[in-house]
Amino acid sequence: MEKEEGAFLTISELAGELGLPQHILRYWETRFPQLRPLQRSGNRRYYRPGDVALARHIHRLLNVEGFTVKGAQKALGEARRAATPAPPPPVDAPLSDAALLARLETIRADLARAIGA
User: Fold this and answer.
1) Hey, where are the domains in the chain?
2) Mean pLDDT in each 10-residue stretch from start to end of the chain (117 residues)?
3) Assigned fold of 9-83
4) Which of 34, 46, 92, 116 can pair with 38 through a Cys bridge, CB separation 3.0 to 4.6 Å?
5) What are all long-range contacts of 51-55, with beta carbons under 8 Å and residues at least 24 apart?
């Protein structure tokens, strides 16, 4: 019986899908802090859809593309940093006149939309 897409997978189901022994997935959990399945009573692991996607990505990096564990860690870290938007400048940071004017125009437009809504 096959589970629906998005269902939680046990470690044995995920290991079977990836063609790996279960201890490899447990090892990956120690090396890739992003991989954190739910653990229920008796330390039974349940991989959420995000965990499954991450495990598939790690598997592809290590076993298909030939990365080392350290290289895969670096690749995942770079991908995460690239996906994270840069934080806005602190409020007390001095702005140039052009940047200040652009910021004030954005605030004016936001206020106009709020009043009009």
Assistant:
1) 9-83
2) 76 94 95 92 90 94 93 86 66 71 84 78
3) Multidrug-efflux Transporter Regulator; Chain: A; Domain 2 (1.10.1660)
4) 46
5) 52/9, 52/14, 55/14, 55/18, 55/25, 55/28
